[in-house]
Design goal:
12 helices, globular
């Protein structure tokens, strides 16, 4: 009996089983990501690539924030025991728990990026000088990187929204490796969209979420050590 119990404990915890558990979790999370974002992303695919549609693009992207947060939560809390996998339940738990907090960060970020994108799209007609264009690009980059940090923080920790934003901005300077890694990830995502399509990027959502978690690990460790009891 003791041998059977030992075999039961070992099954599902070996390297191959852990790899299989990760693949299973990624697939389930990907399906849930698609389920929670597809109704809003389908209209996005029908919009013309015109600057006048930028506000509609922002509206279509609103559901992406909570869904990505839920994916981060599910992947962070994944069980690597093949006999005890519940990625779907963990995804929905994270979605419900973090919905309000994520929207308080995600929606203002989309508004800022939309204003910047519209300004850049009409820079010639408005006579915007080159230095102002460069400044807007830098601000947009900062908003993107700060939002990525904030999304990870609000998903994994319980802070007030203003504290989440402060920590996100703080770690842009304190953890430049995280910022550079996130920038590379965003550029890769943009490249996938340019070479392939929005659909290809959507199909890689869970992989991108896992990559963001891995990149943000130094920030996560620092916050847990220094800002939580």
């Amino acid at each position: 009996m003791s041998g059977a119990r030992q075999l039961s404990r070992e099954f599902g915890t070996g390297p191959l089983s852990r790899a299989a558990a990760l693949v299973h979790t990624l697939l389930v999370v990907e399906l849930l990501l698609l389920a929670t974002t597809l109704p809003a992303l389908l209209p996005l695919a029908l919009l013309d690539r015109d600057a006048s549609n930028l506000p509609l693009v922002a509206v279509c992207l609103v559901p992406v924030g909570p869904a990505l947060s839920a994916a981060l939560y599910a992947l962070r809390h994944q069980r690597l025991d093949l006999t005890d996998l519940r990625p779907s339940a963990v995804f929905w738990r994270g979605y419900r728990a973090n919905l309000a907090g994520v929207l308080r960060i995600w929606v203002p970020a989309l508004l800022w990026l939309t204003v910047i994108a519209v300004s850049l799209a009409h820079r010639a007609a408005a006579g915007v000088p080159p230095w102002w264009t460069a400044l807007l690009v830098l601000v947009a980059a900062g908003v993107l990187l700060g939002t990525a940090n904030a999304l990870v923080i609000v998903t994994l920790f319980h802070f007030r929204t203003r504290d989440v934003l402060r920590l996100a901005a703080h770690f842009l300077a304190r953890a430049p490796g995280v910022a550079v890694g996130t920038a590379v990830l965003l550029l890769a995502a943009a490249g996938v969209t340019a070479v392939g399509s929005d659909a290809v990027l959507a199909l890689l959502g869970s992989v991108l979420a896992l990559a963001l978690l891995r990149i943000a690990e130094p920030m996560i460790i620092s916050i847990r050590k220094e800002f939580t009891a």
